[in-house]
Every structure is written in C-alpha cells, then in structure tokens.
Specification:
The chain is an alpha/beta fold and about 500 residues long. Helices cover about 40% and strands about 15% of the residues.
Amino acid sequence: MPETIAKVCLIRPPIVVPANNQTSMFTPPLGLAYVAGTLRAAGHDVSLIDAVGDSLDTRHDAENDCFLYGLSLDEVVKRIAPDTAIIGVACGFSFEWPTCRDLIGKIRERFPDALLLGGGEHVTAVPVQSLEESALDVAVLGEGEETALEVVNAFAAGALDAAAIEGVAYKNHDGKAVINPRRARKRNIDDIPLPAWDITPIENYLERGFGFGVDRGRSMPLMASRGCPYQCTFCSNPSMWTTRWIARDPDLLLDEIELYQKQYSATNFDFYDLTAIVKKSWIVDFCHKIEERGLKFTWQLPSGTRSEAIDDEVAGLLYKSGCRNLSYSPESGSPAVLARIKKKITTDSVVASIVSSFSQGMNVKCNIIFGFPGETLREVFESYYFIIRMGMAGAYDISVWAFSPYPGSELFEEISAEKNLVLDDKYYDSLRSYADASRTVSYSHNFSDKKLKVLRWIGVALFYSSAWLRRPLRPFKMVLNVLRGTQESRSEMALANMLRRKKLDSSAAN
C-alpha cells in the first residue's frame, strides 16, 4: 500500500462516429478498466467515467458530418469529483484526438492544479504533439498499468519527477515535450490485476448485448494475450505494444471467465487481442481446458486473427469450445502488396483456413485494405479474385477499408517524411476514410479519391454476390435474424445498427 493515497479519475471520452458509418460499436473500456484495477489494487481511490457507457442512447451533432455518442464534454467534466488530484484521459483512435484535446482543455479550466495524464494509441504514437497542443502534463506511453502506477505513487508522495520515470513523456519548465526511454514490457501479464469492472457502467453494455463482437448475449471483454509478433507496415502495434506476443495462463484466463459468469451472468466473451491465435499449442490447450471444466459459453475473435494456426483440428476445437465468430485480416490478395506491407501470409493458406473454420460451423468475416501507397489496378484485381475465393470458401462478411496513414505505423513515418503531413484537424478528419466510404482519401498516386471509393464498393459487391450465389439462402436468413432481434454475423450487426440509427433519427425529428 502506498504511504499516501491519491484520488484518481480515469475518463473514457465520448466517441466520434461519422454519420455515414453503419458499423459503429459500443464497447466497454477494457484498457482503462485494467489501469483502474492496477491503481486500486495498490490502494488508491479510483473512479472511472465512461462517457459512452453512461449514456449509450445519447447523440450530439459534431463537426464534419459526425455525431458524438455519449455524454457531452461539459457533462463529463461535471462528473469529476471536485477533490480529484489526478485525471487520466484515454485517446485511442487518432481520428478522435480533436475531441479528446477539447475535453482535456475543459478539464484544465475546472481543475487548474490537477495532474493531467493522457494515454492510449494516439498519445503513444505522437507524444510530443499530444503534450504541446493540449493541457496534458504527462503522457503514458504503451502498455500503461505499471507506468501509470509509478506516476500516481510519486505524485501522491509529493515526489513526482517525470524525468526519472521510464515510459512517459512530459513537459519541461519551458513547456516543451521530453520523451523518456520506453519501459520494458511486462513479461508475466498474469500478475496484472483484473479490470475494475465494478466502477464502470458495465451492466449498460451487458443488458444490451453491446461489445466488440456480434450480439450473442451478455458479452464481457477479455484479453488472452498482449502484443503481436508481426510488423505490418500499416499498423501501430510495434509502437504501442512492441512485437513481443505474450499469452496468459489458460487456467487463469478461465478463472476470470468463470468469475464473470457468476458475477455478471456473462454468456459470451469477446477477445480484444491484437492476434489471439499465434501458437497452436496454446489455443489447443485453452480449448481442451474449457471442455475439462465443463464450461458453457460462446466466445468470439472479432479483431483480425492470423490464420496460420487454424487448421481442421483447431477449427473443430474452437467450435466445440464455444467459438462462433472469427475475423481474418489478410488485407490484400496481391502477393506484391503483401510483401510490401510485410504481411507474412499466403492467400492459399487463408482460403484453406476459412474452409476449415466454415466447415466446422463458425461465422467468418474478412478484412481487406485498398489504396496502399504504390498499389496498382492490377494488384486490386488480384485482390478481387481473392475476395471472390474467400466468399466462395464460406466467409460470411467482408470489410473493404481504405488505407489511412495512422500515426505510429511505419507507413505513416514514410508518408509523413515524403509529403510533410501536417497533423492538424483536417488530417485527423481524413482518417475517417477507413470507416466512412463517403469520405475515401487515396494515398496511392494510381487512384483518385473517387476511383478508390468505387474500387471499394466493387470489392464489397464481388464478395457478397459470390458468397450469396454459392449459398443463396444466406441473405434471407440474415434479414430474418435481424427481424427476430438476433445476430450471427457482422452484416446482421450492421443492419441492427442501421435500424438503431433510424430510431434515433426519428426520435430527434420528433
């Protein structure tokens, strides 16, 4: 226990959603809950404001044809206890940085003497700018539990010397940002205290079936591993998590699952891992232990899982253990593009893995990206052929994203150096291109913005026409599920979101 207890408030800001994006997900704040659990286990007085979960049905108009979902910025600030000494704000997606920055400014106005911390993927990727254009005092870089705890302990003891703490960036006396050496990754992640879900509005998510995956009941978030061993050039993982993949002990993970079944009546678990299935031996062991314990639940791998370890044997074990949804992220069907982006896969292996997963009864979604720098029309056509193969192989859904140079990625550094990118609000708004097809921005000199937008829609059309031609009853089943209020696939999730949006629009009009 620390000699002095600090009163800490952690904040998940409202989320920014483009008006034309139909796939917005309302997910519990797993990262902040982990940090809150760590601080509380050390004896500190911790509260958490989840602006989204506290007001799931509230929508505010925002700039650039967007909506802000959750509490307003002023409402968030009002909920912070007056005697709070340390306030931490999470900022994950760079697209949402202007909103986070504005919230931080409002917090500073009301709490001029509080220590303001920032963390998350965006702050880790561009700590200098995050500090110098906002009221933040300290930026927590990368995996945040240990670093945040050291900062809070030092501040509570009246001896905070940011220059002596690894894994942070801070403002010096001149207001300039200084970046300290990164903290080494924690090797035994089983030592990290469990997320402090009891101080979050988790029930609001559970009762609505909201989560990272499709709605299969009361869904709790989990992390079975941290990090990713791959170095894809478009991904910020190496900056945020490094390339060390660390898995949890399967028995301890199942202990957590059993706890949530008893405490929250959870029936489904969404794995938030960057890539949960890396070692075949680990996933086989995990599936066997579920059977040995006699546990009954469904679980999903909604982020881009690698396909290498998923063969007929593993796919069978996954389904038998309760896994129902998988997402694959091959990103391209062009061997040349795959080589340039350092995506170490083959299209044949992905298709074979999809066949295995589908044959065992799992619902598969695939992710493709168009518009990588230098990508040609011929390479897009190679991806079209691959898209058709995936649809014929049994995949249910696809997302065809537009490449965006996200801060923290290798391609961002290359493009920033070449084009001298200015990280202003216009740039951050351009990052919505990944999720909002109406605002597609091209970073390939071979495609205009308009042409890339058309290429995306053609890819989506090719996938569903081939998949539904092979299995013509699928679209009817999809509509029937939505009408029944159930979900099995991401397309059904998107349709349910569209209906929810229309309901909100009708309520606003009245």
